[in-house]
Amino acid sequence: MAAMQPFKGAKLVIMTILLSLATFMQVLDSTIANVAIPTISGSLGVSTTEGTWIITSFGVSNAISIAITGFLAKRYGEVRVFLWATGLFTLFSFLCGISDSLAMLLFFRVIQGAVAGPVIPLSQSILLRGYPPALQKIALALWSMTIILAPVFGPIFGGYISDNYDWGWIFFINIPIGISVVIIGRFLLKPMESMTTRLPLNYIGLALLVVGVGCLQIFLDKGQQLNWFASDQIVALAIIAVIALTFLVIWELNNKNPVVDLSLFKSRNFSIGTLSTSLAYMAYFGAIVLLPQLLQEVYSYTATWSGLALAPIGILPILFSAAVAKVSDYIDIRWIITNAFLFFSLCFFWRAYTFEVDGSFMTFALPQFVQGIALACFFMPLTTLTLSGLPSDRLASASSLANFFRTLAGSVGTSITTTLWANRASLHHAQLTESVTAYNPDSVAMYHQLAAQGLSTEQISTYINQQVSAQSLIISANDIFWLCGWIFIGLIITIWLAKPPFKAMGG
After folding, report:
1. pLDDT of residue 6
2. Collapsing DSSP states into helix, strand and coil, what is residue 506?
3. Sign of torsion, CA 206 207 208 212?
4. In the 3-class helix/strand/coil scheme, how is 98-128 assigned residue by residue?
5. Inter-residue long-range contacts of 175-178, CB under 8 Å, 24+ positions, other chains counted
6. What's the Cα-to-Cα distance from 466 to each of 39, 240, 297, 432, rounded to whole Å?
7. What is the DSSP string of 358-423?
8. Which top CATH class is 9-201+259-425+475-495?
9. DSSP string spanning 427-465?
10. 3-state helix, strand, coil in the chain (%, to 5)
11. Longest Cα pair distance anywhere in the chain, in angstroms?
């Protein structure tokens, strides 16, 4: 790593804003499409389930490119790769916005995800190198604010654009941010360029990574549609994914120039931090995808109002993130992370108890607001724990690998949540329908009540089916909320296996 002095004064401020904007842009792009999926799907003439591929296609290609970011940074330099990635991400944002078919959009989303992979891990690595060790936790807290704020503004922007403008603008808004970051970063970040090494490209490792992760994601995306293991295609994808990923681990552990530096898992804290972050993000991001679809399909919310219902999650992190960074200097950060997981589980259990057909806006917004406490105590402490004890020259590789698993977990969480929601809804629909008979006094009373209001037999059947479907979707969502809550309870045990001290990264 090139020797350099940390930035000071105005340069430090501008660098922080610049790197945070780049991160904000990419995370925003990952979440802004969530509430717009019904709009995009309708515009392109596809189902909502197919529309979720807009998220998962980006996630899987993004995860693959994140995994090789450490290699790219060593070969071409962290700053150079960061600026190229930001520029290409901006270009493909424009191409996504002008797409006129699902196939075209998915094609550009895959490439957009691939070129964007290095942005988040390298912005984190460059930021940490630009700050003195004593201020690195503050730097991470400020940087984490962008990861927190982007999912807040994403649903609002996505909803407002979907309701009032062409959906293409959810991608076009990246363009001015991306251009600004590239132009200013080209001059400001030049002194921070890292040393490069002419490493040979590990083609076999890269091929195994692409095949393994790609087949795994397609397996998760298409499983429900093709009836899982009843389909020969799904069986083949599962077998290929298992074989490719198994050989990837064996190959990378025995290669002098691994495309994915799996030796980082020899660090106890890196292993525990990465596992905890990935599982937590899987549950958290799956809910981010589920909630706007639930609000729009069951409660008839517009995309804008679903975004506003999710937005309160960002209020408390804005107020408390810097304070959490300060407090972490004096208490064991495992207590802070434990607090985060407890509040995550509390809010998921809260939703499972309160979500009903006649739920009000506050029923959805209030748990989001309280969950902000969990987010304020989540990203910075877990990142500190994950990277603690690693030398400076491994920060880029460590950040890349940790973000790879986090991003892949978010994509897997989306697929699992979508599948579970549909399957559990079908099960609950069948169970509820069994009670709608001529022998059930409640069913008979409802039938006579609706008939007295002038509804025909066909209209009554349609109305009752709509009510049963809505109840089924809500109960299914509550099943998922219960599961997520218990996942966070289990993660509390995992986090206490990490070993202090949790010193400054690269220190």
Report:
1. 67
2. strand
3. positive
4. CCCCHHHHHHHHHHHHHHHCCHHHHHHHHHH
5. 175/90, 175/93, 175/94, 177/21, 177/22, 177/24, 177/25, 177/90, 178/22, 178/25, 178/86, 178/87, 178/89, 178/90, 178/93
6. 21, 41, 11, 12
7. T--HHHHHHHHHHHHHHHHTTHHHHHHHHHTT-BGGGHHHHHHHHHHHHHHHHHHHHHHHHHHHHH
8. mainly alpha
9. HHHHHHHHT-STT-HHHHHHHHHHHHTT--HHHHHHHHH
10. 80, 0, 20
11. 83
Gap between the Cα atoms of 31 and 1, Å rounded? 34
Q: Please identify every stretch of the chain with a pLDDT value under 50, giving residue numbers as ranges.
A: 1-3, 507
Please give the pLDDT value at position 244.
94
Q: How many CA atoms lie within 13 A of 367 on its CB side?
A: 22
Q: Based on the number of CB atoms within 10 Å of its own CB, is 35 exposed (0-12), middle (13-18) or buried (19 or more)?
A: buried
Tally helices (H) and strands (E) across the chain. Answer: 22, 0
String of DSSP letters for 208-248: HHHHHHHHHHHHHHHTTTTTGGGSHHHHHHHHHHHHHHHHH
Rounded (10°) CA dihedral 498, 500, 505, 507: -140
b/e burial code for range 168-181 (CB count within 10 A of at least 16 → b): bbbbbbbeebbebb
